[in-house]
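stuck on whats below:

***
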Amino acid sequence: MLEIHNLSLVGITRPRLQGIELTLSQHQLVGVIGANGAGKSSLLRCIAAVEPRLEGEIRFNSRDWLSLSHRRRQQSLGYLPQTETPEWDIRIDELVNLTAQHSREQLDAHLRNYELLALRDRRVSQVSGGERQRALLARATITQPELLICDEPVSGLDVAHQLTMMQQLKTHAQGRGLVLVAIHDLALAARFCDQLLLMHDGQLVALGEPFEVLTEANLAHCFGVRAEWVCKTNGVGWIPTPLVTETD
């Protein structure tokens, strides 16, 4: 279980986070949504304990998360930041296996799950941005962390790989633990996430199942749009339109 109490984070001109209170249970895929600048990345950075100026309390599985050593946290945590460029031009299999040192057989099985087996011998400079993103996500999950934090992991991926990656995250949550993912595509979020966490101006606005969070009022307030939802048995889609401000 992840518990957050009175979490705040200062910013240059305004608070980046303000008084976040949050409790999340294990074995859930939780989508963190909100407009640009809402505080999604700031929240994930705080939970990943890479943001030094935070105030408040974070507990994971009854442990004081922030007081643990970096090494102890890394035993439970997988973290994929929003932008990451590998420092060395190493092979894809080396990049994915960097923190785990799995056997060839174990590594190949993991690479196959992320459709990277055919790319295993290529170097980072020899693959596309989307392929590199999949490799970084594979690296974040190779140790099967109990807490997995991903900041926009499907950005830059084509539609088919977006669906594959979201299903991978869902499967990881069901089998291993809690997964938090910042995501802009609300249709993907509605289809795959067990809960959605809606941020606005550094505050937590709503937390619940997708149908509870993606309301007409919340979409208008936090995104400035109204939406028509299309729901089918194999997924959902939406058609957003800007709110029109009436003037005299």
Observations:
- The mean pLDDT is 90.
- Residues 159-175 form the longest helix (17 residues).
